Amino acid sequence: MLILPKDRMEALERRFKFLEETMAVYPGGDVYRKLASEYAELELLVRHIRLLTLARREEEDVNVMLTDPRTDINMRVLAEEERSCLRAKICELEKTLSTLLLPKDVADDRNVILEIRAGTGGLEAALFSGDLFRMYERYAVYQGWKVEMISMSEADLGGYKEIIAGISGKSVFSRLKFESGVHRVQRVPETEASGRIHTSAATVAVLPEAEDIDIEIHLEDIRIDTMRASGAGGQHVNTTDSAVRMTHIPTGITVIQAEKSQHQNRARAMQILRARLYDMKRSQIAKERSAFRKEQVGSGDRSERIRTYNFPQSRITDHRINLTLYKLDQLMEGYLDEIIEPLIADHKAGLLGQIGVEK
């Protein structure tokens, strides 16, 4: 279990007190806003440090009572019971502090760009892409998030060859970041007359939105081509000269936007390009770190098969944590916390192991 050094706890207490006093002197304005975020993060941590310090002192007092030969038998029994309760409390507080002290992902509070693309399986893969998008859209509604369509390429029967959307709200990336990867489906396609089960797949990418300070894009590194958009897509893809293809020359990343407004297409393309470059930067850092450690819930590699949706058995399996649930219909309706929470917990457990905390 985590043993937080006394000097570290005292340093955190001093920093918290400094923030408290400084914010009282500057109520509002840039200084206040700059410190408010750190204050909010430290507040919960310091509260638990104080509770832990108090519990340890109480345990010391009980130990003194138990080592005192003058303590009578009845008081000794009560003291033993109290010590047992205090030790359990201390253990729980140390566990909570371990989690609060975990290194934070700077992108956890970011909005995301969700990209879903049909993989192997033709029309059935496109239909599954649509099912996945609606699943995440429903989950977003339950979380109080906002979903904004960026672009889509429709297939027959309500499926999508590709669909891209922005999701904004509180802690979106922290909840969805483990959804990136290959999602596999096993079911009888609507077009299958013999009732034979097919296996298809779709790729999901969850990209945290990048800020200007994250990624610097030089104009000379971008090539923008205006072209005519055509092909399947119904009302969402128009035959127009406003379509924009934006290419980042150093990396070869290409983004195509084909809505009505060329100005909007350029802005959207830049937003997606920036997110993809930021994701590439984060992936590179993760690969460098993986030389020393391996993430519990996977690397986030787009080619990694992470989950299987078996409709005949109403079964969903996440292969990274060997979790199987027999409530596929409920999960497809957007009730994803039962699979997202274990992924987050497993990730935290992995981080605790990496910093030497006994799980």
Main features:
359 residues, alpha+beta, eight-stranded mixed sheet
Give a short overview:
Helices cover 46% and strands 22% of the residues.
Description of the molecule:
With 359 residues, this protein is α+β, with helices and mostly antiparallel strands. 46% of the residues lie in helices and 22% in strands. The protein has 8 helices and 11 strands. Strands 2-3-1-5-4-9-10-11 form an 8-stranded mixed β-sheet. A 3-stranded antiparallel β-sheet has the order 6-7-8, with helices on one face. A hairpin with a 5-residue loop joins strand 2 and strand 3. Helix 1 runs antiparallel to helix 2 and helix 2 runs antiparallel to helix 3. The protein is flat, with a radius of gyration of 26 Å. The relative contact order is 0.10. About 5% of the residues have low confidence.
Over the alpha carbons, how many angstroms does the gyration radius reach?
26 Å
Mean pLDDT: 82
Low-confidence stretches: 231-240, 289-296
Counted by DSSP, the helix tally is 8
Biggest sheet statistics:
8 strands, mixed
The geometry reads as: flat
Structural class of the helix and strand makeup?
alpha+beta
Number of strands: 11
Helix/strand order: HHHEHEEHEEEEEHEEEHH
Question: CA-to-CA gap between the ends?
Answer: 7 Å
- Fraction of residues in H or I helices: 40-55%
Strand content: 15-25%
Numbering strands along the chain, what is their spatial order in the largest sheet? Answer: 2-3-1-5-4-9-10-11
